[in-house]
Amino acid sequence: MKKKLVAILIGLMAIIMVGCESEADTVNHNLSKSADSFEVQRRIIFFNGITDKYLFTIEGLCSLDASDADKLRVTCKVGIDQYKRHYLGLSDNVSYFVEQTDAKTEDPFRYKVLFRPETIIPDIDIQTSK
Asked: H or E element: which one contains 8?
C-alpha cells in the first residue's frame, strides 16, 4: 500500500513540475504586460528585406498587436490619457524589428515617427526648357 501511495505522489509531483514556467517565461510575460501598459520604451523599425533599407521607425511608449499576419497595429502613449494608433501593412518584402530601448531621463511621453526621405520623395530628374 505504501508503494502505491509513493508512486501516486511521485506521479502527481511530476505532473505539477511539468506545468511550472521557467524564469525566462515569467520575465517575458511580465515584459509583455508592461509594454501593453505603456511602461516600456520601444523602437519599432520597418525595413525592406530585399533592399535592406529602413523605411521608418516608431519610438516611444508603444504597444504592438501582431495578431493578423499581414497587418501590425502600433498604439503609442503620447501624453496623459492621449494615444496615437498606426495600422501598418506587411508584405513578403517588408518586415519589422522591435527593440526595447534603455530607460532614459527625458520626457516619458516622447513619441517620434521618422521617415527616411528617400522612401517618401522619389529620385526625380528635372529638365527645363531653354
From this structure: helix 2-18
